[in-house]
Structure prediction request, 334 residues.
Amino acid sequence: MPEPANLAGTPDDAATDRTPSFRDPALARRFSEEGFVKLRILPSDAAIAIAGRVARLYPHGVEANQPQSNWYLGLIDDDRELALRSARLVRDAIVPSLAPLFAHARCHYASVAIKPGGAGATPIHQHWPTTIDPFARRIACWVLLSDSHGSAARFRLVPRSQRILPYIRHSRSGDYFDGFSEQVERRHARDLELSPGEAVLFEDSILHGTGANPGRQMRVAALANFVGVDMGAAALLPDGDDAFAVIDTGGRDGMAEFLEAGEWPESWRPVSRIANRNRAISEEEFVRLLAGNEAATLDHDPLDAIRSPRSRFSRIVRRAARLAGRWTGRGAPG
Ligand SMILES: [Fe+2]
Prediction:
């Protein structure tokens, strides 16, 4: 990764070497308010040429390898040499255009992201934390490379949803919005249309998904993830029902080691434990949290202010009524 341009000052007074930020004040403001920005990163013809080079790495197409999804992530290909080649290709292609946008940032990892022809939309989801501080800003970049041949390539997200809950997605959890995921897609998400060379830069914890690929050819995108220049990499794994173990994945090189080896190195070790504050919420609470736009941390949950003791009591009463209904057979699901 090249060194960022040496511009004077930083637009974000709160930024430290642990939180990446945008050098341009207008971009920094938009990103802080909405949780994303859409930008052109490469000329269209250059992006399409890179997509062609990626496609040539996969002469027989790709198979989706993301659990419960429909797309291919080059980073986790069993063929480690291919994983490295594709990652290097997109890293060299997009990181030189992205890195100068940021202050206090380093590229955590890069990968190809390919949706096979005919694949449907990827449902709205939330990424897992990958840093020692799970709520430190991570900037994810999704860059469309290939020509979508007349059908718009869509990226879908819920503005401001990156801030609202201290919820930590992990391999065995559902999503906090499982109870109203259809409404999230229909009522709260916004579609962004991209052409080749355009990118969505978003807070890694924002709710997001991608549109279908109705064409016959694979749709090639590139991912790059930026974290604070001094931010350690970590995996957060459930440790009992009420805590997470923070696993130090080797300081700066966790993802790079994984990319090389394809498996977690033995040197990774638990360094701390944090409380599991995951809670499912209702759509009404979701709307109120988005409107409040208050940032969650491990020590502060904006949901506490919304769930007053009175509303907690009424929820307990409703739950008891439901259970009583089930017990007598009246409330059993059909
Ligand atoms: Fe994603």
In short: The chain has two domains: 21-273, 283-327. The chain is about 25% helix and 25% strand. Residues 283-327 form one domain. The first strand starts at residue 21 and ends at 22.
